[in-house]
Amino acid sequence: DIQMTQSPSSLSASVGDRVTITCQASQDISNYLNWYQQKPGKAPKLLIYDASNLETGVPSRFSGSGSGTDFTFTISSLQPEDIATYYCQQYDNLPPSFGQGTKLEIK
Amino acid sequence: EVQLVQSGAEVKKPGESLKISCKGSGYSFTSYWIGWVRQMPGKGLEWMGIIYPGDSDTRYSPSFQGQVTISADKSISTAYLQWSSLKASDTAMYYCVRPMVRGVIPTSFDYWGQGTLVTVSS
Predict the structure, then answer these.
(1) Which of A12, A51, A93, B113 is deepest in the core (most CB within 10 A)?
(2) Residue B103: predicted pLDDT
């Protein structure tokens, strides 16, 4: 199975800050990576697919980059409604697997 | 509009059986894979498996093979997740998902149900 390692596990930032989360795969997964947002008590929501493509309706302050084993998720200007846990997910091989999550809080 | 509506929360004892459901609407139920994702309390997301209701082709994560059964009734557009003998460690939120699929590999999990909380306690 492919292991996905996210860092940091938690992050505290101020409104307006640029926030970056990284995700590392245990083997080359090309660009077969998605990012999800999960707000407390809610189901996850797909934000970015294929490493860098924004899902329809997702604000442009969210972006993703990377390929191979190293990926980055960025919020260009943190908003209060972005408080959530973020997960990366690979789909290069069965079983698809998720990172352990990054909990984002407002400072 | 695609919707996945799951059955309500369950409280069960160890050793009991359980079947939870997920009704799909707003799309052709037999033309898309549908599956399940587990989230244990305070933990991350784990893909359990998927089924293609059109022909009942089913794929499981090795971690869940033999532990649960995924099925579907296409006449009522409903998928199921079933346990024959629950354990305390099955306590979790279970999400129904409709993924995009490449071959038999779920790629993105585009649509999610609201979740069914299963609590197993003596």
Answers:
(1) B113
(2) 87
